[in-house]
Amino acid sequence: MFTNPAPEVIAALLRAARVIAVVGLSPDPTRPSHGVARALQRFGYRIIPVNPRVESVLGEPAVASLEQLPEVLAADERVDVVDVFRRPVHVPAIVASCIGLRLPALWLQDGVVDAASAERAVAAGILTVMDRCIFRDRAVLR
What is the pLDDT of residue 142? Predict the structure, then answer.
């Protein structure tokens, strides 16, 4: 049964992360993904929009899929967290991509719940947080 990491593990992840790929990032400023990504930028993270329907969001070039991340990363950059704003039906494929790309952390936003996929990610060594808002968890850090 999936359980989220301890609060101190989540805090350490958010303190160490520099680059966050936001899957399902909308260019619409009224959408939660847009507001969260904008706030993450204000916290100092580089965000990478992952959305096949846009060319850029919040001043960052978008990629159509996680597999295209290397196209927008600098030589010294790596994705530290994949933040997901997609319906749960899309999570198995996202987890498969994270596993294939050996990405270190997966964050499933509020309401994005797929325990079996989360367990699969954890079994593959991916730090996984589910059904929590990355903005709210980051906002309370000092």
Answer: 78
Do the domain assignments include residue 73?
yes
Residue 98 in domain: yes
d(C-alpha 11, C-alpha 7), whole Å: 6
Domain with 22 in it: 7-139
Give dist(CA 87, CA 77) in Å, integer.
28
Contact status, residue 123 vs residue 86, Cβ threshold 8 Å: no
Task: Please tell me what DSSP assigns to residue 29.
Answer: T
Question: What share of the chain has pLDDT > 70, as a percent?
Answer: 100
DSSP state of 58: T
- Tell me the C-alpha distance between 124 and 137, whole Å: 24
Which pLDDT value is given to residue 58?
98
